[in-house]
Task: structure prediction
Amino acid sequence: MPFSDTPIDIQNAPGPTGPGAGIGGCAGQGVKGWIAGPLNAPRLEIALSAVLPDVLDDARRALGPDPARALALARTLPPGPETTLLIGAAQRRLGEAAAAVATLAPLAAAQPKAWGVQFELGAALAVLGRAAEAEAALVRAVALNPRSAQARLHLAGLRAEIGDLETAAADYAALAAEAPDQPPLWLSYGHVLKTLGRQADAVAAYRRALALASDFGEAWWSLANLKTWRFSPADLDAMAAQLARPDLAEPDRAPLHFALAKALEDEARYPEAFDHYAHGNACHRARNPYDADANTAFVQAQIDLYTPAFFAAREGLGCDAPDPIFILGLPRSGSTLVEQILASHSAVEATAELPDLTAVAATLPRPYPASLADLPPAAFADLGRDYLSRMSIQRRTDRPLFTDKFPNNFMHAGLIALILPRAKIIDVRRHPLACGLSGFKQLYAQGQAYSYDLADLGRYYTDYARLMAHLDAVLPGRIHRLSYEALVEDPETEIRALLAYCGLAFEPACLAFHETRRPVRTASSEQVRRPLNRDGLDQWKRFEPWLGPLKSALGPGLL
Result:
């Protein structure tokens, strides 16, 4: 029987085993990608001695399918630790992580031996990117209730996210040994093995998931997402058969389309491949709407705010730490390659794609970025220190510099210049049709909602190029632009220029980047373990007949 999600008990006794002690599943990168989610309706284990037992039962039953109703019902219950826990649990499931932490933190301090409170607090802290605090809370939860598979699963996922990958792999291996019939657990385990460079073991884990659930779309896509993997004819038939099923669950349909598209592309069956890419994108887009007008307005707000006078008036106010090297741009632009090159230098530590800068921006008063104009002078250095504090858990060496390779940080490049004036900013640029198509072919674990429509992709690229051009004009020389195509054509020249911008001496290891052994958490993990090649330069031309909406949105100025 599949485990349920997140059993919670306010009491200090050991928690439940069996159906209440859960493992579930979702796939991808980021905390949500490493932590398996629910396989069936969650239930909340609370011993409540107060009145209104019917209301309590209703709230507990609603927590999984309707957390808003659970929250409303919980707020009608008498005050007490049980009620507080139920409120915090509902808030977390509603995506209100900050509210959940505010609710649960005092309870956790008052009830230090209540494993369920520690678990819920840790899970909410993880969503907020407060990784060190989240890990501490989850460690406490597991110590208090070692039989809680869900607490152990969340801890394993968080450890993977903060780069403690060997420990995470051991955690997942132990869980898989205890619950070998859980496909999503094998999926999450496979993600960690892939990141560690253990491709054969990752394939075996994904195959184990498929052996347990042949319609598990995320497992099929995870195989395809190895990029160097090739499916067998039997695999193509199996995926096609699953997609032909009218009862296939919608969450499995999009990843199966993407996986089959990749398999058909490898067979040079380009019209069929594009048809499946298009269907996969349409399925995913239907579940993940995107507001292109809002994105364009956000970019315009930055262009309106960021003038030479604006930056001059705030010069020198930020934190002067030189540690961060931000690698940004659009996903699938070559940023993982640039990260791998820099990580091959003796002075640079690579971290991962992390939303810590976005989390810092989220702490600013609304509307952002306009609120930057009213910040007190001391706030800029405080924001820089906040970012460095959040990143500290990712640092595992004494190398003086570290990379932050979150492509969407380009949306906060102006903020970087204000709060970390000595940080390096590298904009990795790729041919817009190559970059756009590569994004269209990628099923992301989360976010990147613009990438599931070719016209939206073109408009997003246009917004990106417009913002970076403006920042070049108002902050000349501040951002180093690196062309992926130029890097492939003349790697030594481009790598020397990159290192010079970062204030680093040239080291031959940067040219032999593919020999550097380190965990890589992105879709390009297998590609950057190979020598530089021209394979990706012209792949977009295979699909050019279908790229009309992308070309139209880009316009002649970018083509």
Q: What stands out?
A: Residues 104 and 177 are 32 Å apart (CA to CA). The longest strand covers residues 324-329. Strands lie at 324-329, 348-350, 401-404, 424-429, 479-483.
